[in-house]
What we know:
By secondary structure, this protein is an alpha+beta fold. It has three domains: 1-43, Ribosomal protein S4/S9, N-terminal domain (Ribosomal Protein S4 Delta 41, Chain A, domain 1), CATH 1.10.1050; 53-100 and 197-211, Ribosomal protein S4/S9, N-terminal domain (Ribosomal Protein S4 Delta 41, Chain A, domain 1, Orthogonal Bundle), CATH 1.10.1050; 102-187, Structural Genomics Hypothetical 15.5 Kd Protein In mrcA-pckA Intergenic Region, Chain A. The protein is 39% helix and 8% strand. It has a five-stranded antiparallel β-sheet with strand order 2-1-3-5-4, with helices on one face. α5 (91-100) packs across α9. The radius of gyration is 18 Å and the shape is globular. The two termini are 29 Å apart. The mean pLDDT is 85.
Amino acid sequence: MARYTGPVCKLCRREGEKLFLKGERCFTNKCAIEKRSYPPGEHGRYRGRRSRESDYSRQLRAKQKAKRIYGVLERQFRRYFNNAQRKPGLTGLNLLQILESRLDNVVYRLGFAESRNQARQLVNHGHFFLNGRRNNVPSTILKPGDMLEVREESGKRTYFKMLKQADDIRTPPAWVESNVSNLSGRVIRLPERAEIDGNLNEQLIVEYYSR
């Protein structure tokens, strides 16, 4: 299963904003973009001095940002876009709903992980049951009504014990229902556009793939 294994702080610096790929660390002064807000690379300091950004560049950056936020590589992202095109409704919204419905993202949204990268690792290690069956595939697309719960054996681990006792669990969005005390959650419905990260521009992504 392919995934990006390089330094994630470089991804934030390339996009020129925090993508919150390291969870709580992104809110501290250890965040790399706080110290070096320019793009990585030998000529990174000078990349932002161009007077005008082309339409293609803006479309590419919007697509790359979405890929990096959700931890998806190009081939899989393109497949999601093709699936979104075949569904009724707005292609851009369909694409974002597919990305939000990934198992690793739902684990993150439920508050069981500090970042999507951590959520992906927890899923890979087989800590979750999906509808009563063990699932270790982070790219699994969940549907309304799907139930997610931590395995009984995994619930005995220190990480999940501390999670149940934590007071600063993120409030989940309205399209999922979280029960931290029982280490379980449920997908109620598909997310609306207002419930998805507002710094994503799905229209530019559609324009990029429609060239």
